[in-house]
Structure formats: structure tokens, C-alpha cells
Amino acid sequence: MKQRCVLLADAHANMLEGIRGLLESIFEAVVMVADENSLLEAADKLKPNLAVVDLSMPVSEGSNVARRLKKRHHDLRVIILSVHDEPTVVNEALAAGASGFVLKRAAATDLIPAVREVLRGGIYTSPGLESR
User: Fold this and answer.
1) For the range 96-102, what are the long-range contacts, defined as Cβ-Cβ under 8 Å and sequence gap of 24 or more?
2) DSSP string covering 48-109
3) What is the CA radius of gyration of the chain?
4) Are 81 and 102 in contact (CB under 8 A)?
5) pTM (two decimals)
6) How far is 69 from 6, CA to CA, in rounded Å?
7) Chain segment 64-123, per-residue pLDDT in tens
8) Among 8, 40, 66, 114, who pairs with 100 as Cys (CB 3.0-4.6 Å)?
9) What is the DSSP letter of 126?
10) Residue 84: Cβ-neighbour burial (10 angstroms; 0-12, 13-18, 19+)
11) What CATH number belongs to 3-125?
12) DSSP state letter for 132
């Protein structure tokens, strides 16, 4: 059974299209946005099951976007996509409320397992990150 809705936020159109293709097999609707304001507005209106968000998306108020999403929507699951694999970056994202951290270079293989684990209530990080 497909999940209802996922928000996908990334400023890069090519990345959005590739990730959307992966997520369409799990979700009835994949809503794509390219900036923080659109992400927050869509989360308010749609009440999605999950948000998959680029870590490098510019955010206002110097705040982590995962933290802002979780503050407004406590039950929303958030997976961060990033090119950064430094332990401090991963730890900060998880501390801010993200339930998953997937490296963009591994999204083709890691995103679907991440989505499944996070929707079950677990935590997922791309393999290799947790051993650093």
C-alpha cells in the first residue's frame, strides 16, 4: 500500500527529477519544492508523511530546516539529502530532528531503504556514515 504524500525539497531541478522517480513507487503524491518558504507552506497545507530535504537549501533565520519543520509538525519524518559526509554534519542534522541522512551520491541505492526505515519509526544513515 502506498503512503499518501512526500515533500521533496532541493534547489537543483535535475536532482528533484531523479529523486522523484524513486519516490513515486512508494507515495501516491510527490510534491516538489525548490525553496524553504515553499517547503514550509506545502508542509502546512498537505500534512505529508515525510519530507526529503537537501541540507544545503538556503534557510532563513540561520536555522536548520529540519528543526523548523519538526517545530511546526512534530509527527513529520524528515530525511536529509547531502553531499557532506562529515560526522558533525550528520550528527547536527539528527540532533535537529531528522530521522534520516542520505548522501546524494548514494541516493539511488540508499533512499528507498531510508524511507522505509524512517516511516517505520527508525533512524537511517547511509552505510559508512555511522562508523566515522
Assistant:
1) 96/64, 96/66, 96/67, 96/70, 97/66, 97/67, 97/69, 97/70, 98/66, 99/123, 99/124, 100/124, 100/125, 101/125, 101/126, 101/129, 102/126
2) -SEEEEETTS--GGG--HHHHHHHH-TT-EEEEEES---HHHHHHHHHTT-SEEEEGGGHHH
3) 13
4) yes
5) 0.92
6) 13
7) 788 889 999 999 999 999 999 999 999 999 999 999 999 999 999 999 999 999 999 999
8) 114
9) -
10) middle
11) 3.40.50.2300
12) -
Residue type, 113: P
Residue 129: HSE in the Cβ half-sphere, 13 Å Cα cutoff: 26
What letter represents residue 108's amino acid? Answer: A
Of 43, 105, 117, the residue nearest 79 (C-alpha):
117
